Amino acid sequence: MQVARSLAGRRVGLGRPALRSAPVRARATTVCKVHKICVLPGDGIGPEIMSIATKVLSAAGRLHGEEFEYKYELIGGAAIDATGVPLPEQTLTTAKASDSVLLAAIGGYKWDTLPSDKRPERGLLGIRAALNAFANLRPAIVPRQLADSSPLKRELVEGVDILIVRELVERIARVAFDAARKRSKRLCSVEKSNVLEVSQLWKEVVIRVGKEYPDVELSHMYIDNAAMQLLRNPKYFDVVVTGNIFGDILSDEASMLAGSLGLLPSASISGTGPGIFEPVHGSAPDIAGKDLANPLAMIMSAAMMCTYDLALPAVAATLEAAVNKALDDGYRTGDIFKEGQAGTKLVKCSEMGEVLLKAVQG
After folding, report:
1. Is residue 209 a contact partner of residue 170, using CB atoms and an 8 Å limit?
2. Residue 267 φ/ψ, nearest 5 degrees
3. In the listed set 258, 291, 309, which residue is the last one of a domain according to the structure?
4. d(C-alpha 96, C-alpha 316), whole Å
5. One short Pfam family name for this protein (predicted)?
6. For residue 161, what are the domain limits?
């Protein structure tokens, strides 16, 4: 892509430069501590893609002397079926005691008729609140191998690498400035201060915080213009900071620059405790159990976890390199496969998992 500039080395506040994708194979010389991961397969295609992610993550860890201990818990619809609630206390206890949380997908048609406070999505909102995971990070990366799959012209999207940071608190501005400082030192604040009073306050706060980061170029843009520019000139953006509602709009729009939700990870972090790492896509109940899902976003979510929560940039780079190799070798799941494209092979979810595992193991 090369999964653009790589997520490795971008942990907010660490002050490390971004790393390029490392060679897939690199032997470890020391044995490090066991990293405790709370694993939440969730609903729909979640168990399928999570199974692949944990296998590939463990293999990548072994190359670098890192070990992962997985504790599986229930959340969402699966938790409702088993316990009657979307977020059992046992899940919260395990999550709080872990080094990080890896989540696959939540929800499905089966639970759509439940009262709003009992629906699967309440489990996700609840665990984010319990872990104080206030900062949501959404990368929007267009791999060069898949630039032709975008609904936009290749020259507009090839090389796009945007990080959208969203929430409605002052500390999110610091997270965004720290992230920009580790990338291209450019931050765009998106609001609607010409109409909304809350956006006027937002702008004042961002400008005030920006004075602490004189090396970061700060710009401002109204949400309507930002939505247009994201399609007209997406390469203009590097790091975008905005409130939760505007961020939801822009991150969903940006996710389609790559042509598929099956490629993009996300993170919800607190800066003090375990974060939550999950694909942007949903549970896709219509293809659940049919071996048709794309596991790449789940793998990239594990890479983000290694970067932001576990401080394992070498493991993250190995995961990214495995994804790059799979795409370079032409392997495509149905959502990113284009009929007639030379050098590509249509594979199932499990087959993509085998390709990724072989890429890591060498």
Report:
1. yes
2. -140, 145
3. 258
4. 23
5. Iso_dh
6. 151-258
pLDDT surpassing 60 at residue 3: no
Quote the CA–CA distance of 138 and 261 in Å, as a whole number: 12
**What is the C-alpha to C-alpha distance for residues 44 and 109, in angstroms, rounded to an integer?**
10
Chain centroid to Cα 103, Å, comes to: 10
Which pTM was predicted?
Answer: 0.86
Report the number of distinct structural domains present in the chain.
2
Give the amino acid at 115.
P
Q: What are phi and psi of 124, to 5 degrees?
A: -65, -45
Helix axes 223-232, 244-255, angle to 10 degrees: 10
CB 85 within 8 A of CB 122: no
Q: Which residues contact 214 (CB under 8 A, 6 or more apart)?
A: none
Tell me how far CA of residue 109 lies from CA of 130, 222, 278, in angstroms: 26, 36, 20
155 and 89 housed in the same domain: no
* Residues 290 and 214 both lie in one domain: no
CA-closest candidate to residue 103, choices 311, 266, 292 = 266
Rounded Cα distance between 53 and 353, Å, is 8
Report percent pLDDT > 90 for the chain.
78
How many C-beta neighbours within 10 Å does residue 19 have?
18
Q: Burial code of 328-353, b = ≥16 C-beta within 10 A, e = fewer?
A: beebbbbbbbeeeeeebeebebeebb
Q: In degrees rounded to 5, what are phi and psi of residue 32?
A: -100, 180
Residue pointed to by tokens 């044995």: 31
In the chain, how many H helices and how many E strands? 12, 12
For 22-79, the pLDDT digits (tens) are 344 444 444 557 999 999 999 999 999 999 999 999 999 999 999 999 999 999 999 9
Residues 158 and 19 in one domain: no
Judge whether 145 lies within some domain. no
Instruction: Give the whole-angstrom CA distance, residue 327 versus residue 300.
Output: 13
